[in-house]
Amino acid sequence: MSVKLTYLLVTFCLFVANAITVSSLDLLGPYILDPGYAELNSALDKDSVVDFVSLILPFPFVFLLIFLHAIPVIRSSGPAHLLPDRIRRRIINSPLHLSIFGSSGWLLGYILFQIIAYVRGYRLPLGYLLQNSIQFLVLLAITFVVGYYLIEFLIRRYAIPRIVPDGKISEIGGVRHITIRGRMLILYLAVVLIPVLVLYRVLIVLNAGGDNIHGKDISTALNIMAFVLLLVGFLITMLKAGSLNDPILDMQQISSRIAQKDYEARVHVVSTDEIGNLGERMNEMAEGLAERERIRDVFGKVVDPGVRDLLISGELKLGGERKQATVLFTDLQGFTALSESRDPEEVVGLLNDYFRDMTQCIRAHGGMVNKFIGDAIMAVFGAPIPSNDHAGQAVAAAAEMLALDSRYHGVTLTTRIGIHTGSLLAGNIGSDERMEYTVMGDTVNTASRLESACKNLKLKLLVSESTVQRLPANLREDLGLKPVAKVRLKGKKEPVSVFTVSPSVAQETSQ
Question: In terms of pLDDT, which residue wins out, 112 or 32?
């Protein structure tokens, strides 16, 4: 249902509310006025001028107000959610404003009744004026309450979800915020105060024993009164129950979806009371969680997911700690020459695809990609998340990396890998404003030097003796590890014993 059609139905609700009130007047009116004023009341009822001025003349004015209120909404154009704030504010405030307009006819009628009765020469006793005031007050209250809840139901169900689809009603300036307490006071007016006033007057009138038009037929009076009040009370109670129950059920369902990490779920905010405010806060919470998840996802692409989770949990502080771990370094053979012969965009695309596959191998075996250095990768096994088999994980990852298809964008890439196990310092390096998780120490330098030594030895993989000593016997056999002549590494005084895998895993290659 469109917003304009909804608003047309809203104006029709005011006709309904006044029709119910007129019917209530016809049914209950004779029981409200004291029998002693029956003759005066009959004379006033038969006076067409008094009847026209007090009961007919006010309502064209009332519906003119309603029409003027509705014109900007009816004439508005464009998508409902893009309507100007002044139009959306008018629609959201319409339950209160239109119900006041719709019931104001009875207040105006009461004022005009006093004036025209005086002009026409009627001298109304104080008791009659008091009873007449109660009668008009009851009629005004019935019109206001019925109109308010009917209009609120339509606006809440069909208009607000379209004009404020994001539920951020509080961001529209000038919206009337009626609290739950205020709404319950209106409900109290409908189901308690009005019935009590009517019942009080009916019992007073019937107890007087005068000659009202129904005589002493208290049964008929109570049946009529009960029918009217029960009908109106049931209608109002059901509308009010829906305005409370539906949003709460919606929030219950949305909270369950958010608990299952569906952060795109949103509460349909359709009111300006505390429940609507709570719905807005839930939506803000969901947006915050969605934003946190996006940041977490992006953060996990900047640093390794394992480091990300530890940083978020607060377990990684500025500084470092000693760990036994295995470091893996890779480099691409002949990449400098390749870069010079191709466009930068093509080189970046090639590297991204290559890094994606290498990263998957490293993470699949429990490793952490610490950083990319040009075309090189530095990975760590056993830090920051401890592992008893970090050496085996590193060598298994290396074997899988070497076994991958090495063609990317039609280019054959040759990977060289160096692996070393030992003590290192792992932690956050930097300042309180900017820090980076990394590993440092001789273990890191040795792994880097082993990768560089692959070039001179024309091998794809070199594993230090300290790593091999920590490998399970079955993994050594599966990989066919074999020793290579001791290698003198840059910065090392003594040669280092190194191993490589069997040719079936990593074929020797020329530079």
Answer: 112
Q: CA torsion angle for 138, 143, 149, 150 (degrees, to 10)?
A: 150
Say if pTM beats, i.e. exceeds, 0.90. Answer: no
- Find out whether the peptide bond into 305 is cis, omega within 30 degrees of 0: no
Contacts with 149 (C-beta within 8 Å, 6 or more apart), sequence order: 186, 190, 235, 236, 239, 240, 243
Check: CB of residue 419 under 8 Å from CB of residue 463.
Answer: yes
Residue 154, CA distances (Å) to 3, 143, 149, 468 in order: 10, 17, 9, 76
466, exposed or middle or buried, with CB in 10 Å at 0-12, 13-18, 19+? middle
Pick from 385, 382, 390: which is nearest to 316 by CA?
A: 385
* pLDDT of the residue at 17: 84
Q: Write down the pLDDT at residue 273.
A: 77
Taking the C-alpha atoms of residue 112 and residue 55, their distance in angstroms, rounded to an integer, is 9
Q: Which domains does the chain have, with CATH numbers?
A: 3-244 (no CATH), 320-500 (3.30.70.1230)
Q: How far is residue 474's CA from residue 80's CA, in Å, rounded to a whole number?
A: 69
In angstroms, rounded to a whole number, what is the distance separating the alpha carbons of residues 489 and 201? 108
Beta carbons within 8 Å of 216's beta carbon, 6+ residues apart = 206, 209
What SS3 state is found at 310?
helix
Burial of residue 456, with CB atoms counted within 10 A of its CB: 0-12 exposed, 13-18 middle, 19 or more buried: exposed
- For 379-404, the pLDDT digits (tens) are 999 988 889 999 999 999 999 998 88
Nearest to 158 by CA among 25, 2, 370: 2
Query: Of the candidates 255, 302, 304, which has an alpha carbon nearest to the alpha carbon of residue 282?
Result: 255
Give the mean model confidence (pLDDT) for residues 206-224. 58
- 111: how many CB neighbours lie within 10 A of its CB? 13
pLDDT (mean) for 6-25:
80
Q: What is the CA radius of gyration of the chain?
A: 42
Q: How far apart are CA 26 and CA 188, in angstroms?
A: 24
Whether the CB-CB separation of 86 and 97 falls below 8 Å is answered with no
Instruction: Give dist(CA 232, CA 386) in Å, integer.
Output: 71
Q: Helix or strand or coil: residue 41?
A: helix
- DSSP H helices, 155-273, are 160-163, 180-188, 194-208, 218-259
